[in-house]
């Protein structure tokens, strides 16, 4: 499916202002719950446990690989999402999602999942075998948006992603002096993301079919699952068709770009 400017105004002015200020916008009914159900059936098929037998859920988190099956691609390419991508990243400036990335499936468990630290998602330097050396720069090379796709209903006890609202501004300022080379995850995490520690914490809850579109610099974290039903969520990147620009002669900045400029 070739990308066309949908012309649809999915997000109102207040939602775009919320994205700029807080670093994310929640889109309800971004894709159909029926697609989420089809996707979960595929994921359960690949999990070594039984959906109807909680005794078989023996680990706090199981990671499943890339998914490019029809329900996943359809969920990522609804008209509603394409319209929002146009508004946040710019029409023609992003690439349609062809896969859903990995799924950290979280199960109810008293155990520490071991991956619940604050972080930002890095976006280049993936040829280095040490993921702590993967990088991000102030122009967000390689990533236009961080996205959280809820494939199951996620309440406050169901291990919703924790978001530090407004933390994208702190990260932009931290990255700016490093220029094009950017910083590695190790360098960014050296102070435990203390720069955003005072920010309000928001939980990415919602019904299956909800999508959070987040600024690439947003600081976020997983958490243990205290509920009763396994949580299915993916966080694929939206890839840029062209590099983001913080210096456009025509001044036609997308909200993603404008936010970085404002932070600096």
Explain what the structure shows.
This protein has 264 residues and is of the alpha+beta class. The chain has one domain (13-263): Jelly Rolls. Helix content is 24%, strand content 16%. The N and C termini lie far apart (37 Å). Residues 1-6 have low confidence and may be disordered.
Contiguous helical run count? 7
The biggest sheet amounts to: 6 strands, antiparallel
Q: Summarize model confidence as the mean pLDDT.
A: 93
Query: What is Rg?
Result: 18 Å
Percent of residues in beta strands: 15-25%
Q: Quote the distance from N terminus to C terminus.
A: 37 Å
Q: Report the CATH architecture.
A: Sandwich
Topology as a string of helices (H) and strands (E): HEHEHHEEEEEHEHEEEEEH
Annotated CATH homologous superfamily: q2cbj1_9rhob like domain
Concise account of the structure shown:
The protein is of the alpha+beta class.
Write the layout of secondary structure elements.
Elements: H1 13-22, E1 24-27, H2 33-46, E2 61-64, H3 70-76, H4 79-89, E3 94-95, E4 103-106, E5 135-136, E6 145-150, E7 162-164, H5 167-175, E8 183-184, H6 185-188, E9 201-203, E10 211-214, E11 220-221, E12 233-234, E13 237-240, H7 255-263
Antiparallel strand pairs: 1-10, 2-4, 3-13, 5-8, 6-10, 6-12, 6-13, 7-9, 7-11
Helix pairs in contact: 1-7, 2-3, 5-7
Key descriptive features of the protein:
Jelly Rolls; 24% helix; 3-stranded antiparallel sheet; 7 helices; disordered N terminus; 13 strands; alpha+beta; 6-stranded antiparallel sheet; 264 residues
């Amino acid at each position: 499916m070739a990308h066309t400017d949908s012309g649809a105004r999915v997000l109102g002015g207040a939602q775009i202002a919320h994205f700029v200020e807080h670093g994310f916008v929640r889109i309800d009914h971004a894709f159909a719950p029926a697609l989420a159900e089809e996707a979960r059936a595929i994921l359960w098929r690949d999990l070594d446990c039984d959906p109807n037998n909680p005794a078989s859920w023996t680990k706090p988190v199981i990671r499943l690989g890339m998914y490019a099956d029809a329900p996943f691609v359809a969920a990522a390419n609804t008209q509603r999402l394409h319209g929002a991508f146009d508004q946040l990243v710019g029409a023609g400036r992003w690439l349609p999602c062809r896969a859903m990335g990995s799924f950290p499936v979280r199960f109810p468990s008293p155990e520490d999942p071991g991956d619940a630290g604050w972080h930002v998602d890095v976006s280049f330097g993936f040829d280095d075998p040490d993921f702590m050396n993967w990088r991000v720069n102030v122009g967000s090379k390689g990533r236009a948006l961080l996205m959280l796709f809820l494939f199951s209903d996620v309440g406050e006890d169901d291990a919703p992603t924790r978001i530090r609202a407004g933390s994208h501004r702190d990260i932009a300022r931290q990255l700016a002096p490093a220029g094009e080379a950017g910083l590695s995850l190790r360098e960014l995490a050296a102070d435990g993301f203390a720069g955003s520690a005072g920010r309000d914490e928001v939980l990415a809850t919602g019904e299956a079919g909800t999508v959070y579109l987040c600024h690439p610099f947003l600081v976020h974290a997983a958490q243990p699952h205290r509920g009763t039903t396994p949580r299915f969520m993916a966080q694929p990147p939206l890839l840029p068709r062209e590099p983001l620009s913080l210096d456009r002669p025509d001044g036609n900045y997308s909200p993603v770009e404008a936010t970085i400029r404002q932070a600096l």
